[in-house]
Amino acid sequence: MRIWVTRPLPDVVVDAARACAGEVVVRTETLPLSHEELRACLRDYDVVLPTLGDMFSAEVFADVPSSRCKLLANFGVGYNHIDVAAASAAGVVVTNTPGAVTDATADIGVMLMLMSARRAGEGERMVRAGVWPGWHPTQMLGLHMSGKRVGIVGMGRIGQAIARRCHFGFGMDVAYVSRSPKVLGFPAERLEDLTTLAAAVDFLVVAVPGGAETHHLIDGAVLGAMQPHAHLVNIARGDVVDEEALVAALQARQIAGAGLDVYEFEPHVSEALMTLETVTLLPHLGTAALEVRTAMGLMAVDNIAAFVAGKDVPNAV
Ligand code: NAP
């Protein structure tokens, strides 16, 4: 067995992969796989542990007709960078790491809600620039988050974890749209329509998976339905939000602010977004904590171990 780990990972994860079987090669580069490396994955390895940005498109599978690789054990819950139908047609199983990422990503979602509502980035920039004139009663007034209404777009694991924090931590009303109704341990109103939800909330938080089905789900019409004091938060995938429409909505002050962890053309962040004071920009920090990344890696390795042992993989997508 030849196993390729496509990014440096915590030592404990690499050690666990080495304990699985065979030869484990760890790629030292931190950026996504190149055109040639993607094809080498399928041609030269039995198992690959890829992650965000490794674009396993249908073209890649078509270019390597008899794939030696039979498992893509993705590091991360989101797998919109892998064409799962093409993988399956090529006999390649895809797994992910659900659950390991949930709380950490929900925490970042709530942090972005607070940062956007309370103008934290803007205030920090003012202090660092040495232009803070001192406290006064009407300075930098933001939106008070406690007791407001949050709308969750995609009430899955992360959406529910954000809603739970909002309800129990901030006494907020929760509303949501999702493909299916959810049984939750707290009150939450399911609305049929995204535009209706957008119009009815103070915070709209995006937590759907990326991919063709959700591309530009948050478009000009949804942003236009939001109230002028409301904030948009996206911790899902960048292209779920039409970034050009978001810039236009922020510039026209159709909405009060936005908090983004992900970007449509990641890692490129447009000049227009960078110059807006009303947007909080994070560098995809959702799961960026050592224990979380370790748990994700160990989950990916569990899938590899099961595959190597000829058992059912626990997290097939
Ligand atoms: P999940 O449990 O599968 O939840 C996704 C939810 O979205 C589900 O409730 C699903 O509805 C709903 N949904 C799917 N398509 C929809 C649509 N077209 N309209 C409305 N709702 C839709 O996934 P998760 O673990 O919460 O993760 C969600 C996403 O967050 C991941 O796919 C990933 O891209 C992103 N993420 C980002 C970071 C980060 O670092 N920023 C970290 C982790 C994850 P049903 O329940 O009815 O199927």
Describe the structure.
The structure is a single chain. The protein has 317 residues and is α/β, with parallel strands linked by helices. The protein has helices spanning 11-20, 35-44, 58-63, 84-89, 102-117, 120-128, 157-170, 194-200, 220-225, 243-251, 271-275, 290-308; strands at residues 2-5, 23-26, 47-49, 71-73, 93-95, 149-153, 173-177, 189-190, 203-206, 231-234, 257-260, 279-281. A seven-stranded parallel β-sheet has the order 8-7-6-9-10-11-12, sandwiched between helices. Strands 2-1-3-4-5 form a five-stranded parallel β-sheet, sandwiched between helices. Strand 4, helix 4 and strand 5 form a beta-alpha-beta unit. Helix 5 (102-117) crosses helix 7. The chain is elongated. The model has no long low-confidence stretch (mean pLDDT 97). The structure holds NADP nicotinamide-adenine-dinucleotide phosphate. NADP nicotinamide-adenine-dinucleotide phosphate binds next to helix 5 and helix 7.
Distance separating the two termini: 23 Å
The SSE string, one letter per element, is EHEHEHEHEHHEHEEHEHEHEHEH
Radius of gyration: 21 Å
What are the segments in which pLDDT stays under 50 over at least 5 consecutive residues?
none
Distinct ligand kinds: NADP nicotinamide-adenine-dinucleotide phosphate
Would you count the extended β strands for me? 12
Task: Report the total helices.
Answer: 12
Helicity level: 25-40%
The major β-sheet equals: 7 strands, parallel
Secondary structural class: alpha/beta
Overall morphology = elongated
Q: For the residues shown, what is the average pLDDT?
A: 97
Strand order of the largest sheet: 8-7-6-9-10-11-12
Strand fraction band?
Answer: 5-15%
